[in-house]
Amino acid sequence: MVCSTKRPGHCDRSRLRHAAEWIVAASEFELIRRFFADATPNRADVVLGIGDDCALLQPAPEQTIAVSIDTLVAGRHFLPDVDPAALGHKALAVNLSDLAAMGATPAWLTLAITLPAADLDWLAAFMRGFAALAEQHRVQLVGGDTTGGPLSVTIQAHGLLPVGRGLRRSGASPGDRLFVSGTLGDAALALRHRRAGLEAGDLQARLDRPTPRVALGLLLRDIASAAIDVSDGLHADLGHLCAASGVAARVVLAQLPLSAAVREACKADNWQLPLAGGDDYELLFSVAPERIADLKKACQAINEPIREIGELRRGAGITLIYPDGSEGRETPQGYDHFKS
């Protein structure tokens, strides 16, 4: 490097700055080689994966690509002391849940991770959780970025659909029945316990390692009229589906699928946990009455628990039917990134 300035010390400082930048870049490439390049299964439709300026992907003819992206930020979406393996799992799971809601088969991923420091043990644990779920769904990491700064994780997930067969929020009609998978409110209750310094027990796994309902999403592609994943709370996400489809909803609270712990908590806080707790990553979907028998048979075949929770009607808004028969149209506040 040639230094043209005559200012004392400037050339030495410039050399040091460029040397530091080179070291950071070399460290980044070493992290990519060590932790990311071979972390996930190889797919035949990936022409070129990690290692170049872009990935090259070749979907089969007559396929549509579904794309979703989510960012998780320390202190807002997860606690700073979270188990890194659990964070690796969850960061991927929330994206796979979006693909499931569209009825898409997961295919490719990109990962951008910002790290306060190049903590190799932390990163190894994060990638163990990430890679295990990626292996389960045969999805390949094809690129991304690493940088220094406050801890955050951004994943873009790509899935594949036959042309014209993706589930949407806008396909529901009056008379359709509402169903939801799994149980609701467990993650929110686990977080409440954690913040209070209490043990969450079995609920902790529902917060740290949600199960993306990919198999159910594929099944629903041929049966459901509309679908959405429950990430911000049942009430908020049902509101999105109703608005997109131009319908109203009636939800029977006694029919919500709840764990014993959440059901007990509902007696004290007026159903806030299952309606607005968030972080469930279950699928909420509508089905025409004549398809319900097909739905139940298909779900039994893959051992996927679902529960009917209400119906759609003409109009707008959501009516809640309480266990005592009373009705309410209050609006519980679901998760909001700029208010929560």
Give a quick set of tags describing it.
340 residues, alpha+beta, 60s Ribosomal Protein L30, Chain: A, Phosphoribosyl-aminoimidazole Synthetase, Chain A, domain 2, 2 domains, seven-stranded mixed sheet, 10 helices
Q: Give the biggest sheet.
A: 7 strands, mixed
Q: For the terminal residues, how far apart are their CA atoms?
A: 50 Å
User: What's the CATH topology label of the largest domain?
Assistant: Phosphoribosyl-aminoimidazole Synthetase, Chain A, domain 2
CATH C-level class of the largest domain is Alpha Beta
Kindly report the spatial arrangement of strands forming the biggest sheet: 8-10-7-11-9-12-13
Strand content: 15-25%
Order of helices and strands: HEEEHEHEEEHHHEHEHHEHEEE
Structural class: alpha+beta
Radius of gyration: 23 Å
Categorize the overall geometry. globular
Q: What's a quick, concise take on this entry?
A:
With 340 residues, this protein is an alpha+beta fold. The protein has helices spanning 10-36, 84-102, 120-136, 186-195, 204-208, 214-220, 234-245, 260-269, 272-276, 292-301; strands spanning 46-48, 56-57, 63-73, 105-115, 140-148, 152-162, 177-181, 226-230, 248-252, 282-287, 306-313, 318-321, 327-328.
Explain the overall architecture.
The protein has 340 residues and is of the alpha+beta class. It folds into two domains: 33-162, PurM-like, N-terminal domain (60s Ribosomal Protein L30, Chain: A, 2-Layer Sandwich); 177-328, Alpha-Beta Complex (Phosphoribosyl-aminoimidazole Synthetase, Chain A, domain 2), CATH 3.90.650.10. The chain has ten helices and 13 strands. It has a seven-stranded mixed sheet with strand order 8-10-7-11-9-12-13, sandwiched between helices. The protein has a four-stranded mixed sheet with strand order 3-6-4-5. Strands 1-2 form a two-stranded antiparallel sheet. β12 (318-321) and β13 (327-328) form a beta hairpin. α2 (84-102) runs parallel beside α3 and α2 (84-102) runs parallel beside α6. The longest helix is centred in the N-terminal third of the chain and has 27 residues, at 10-36. 40% of the residues are buried.
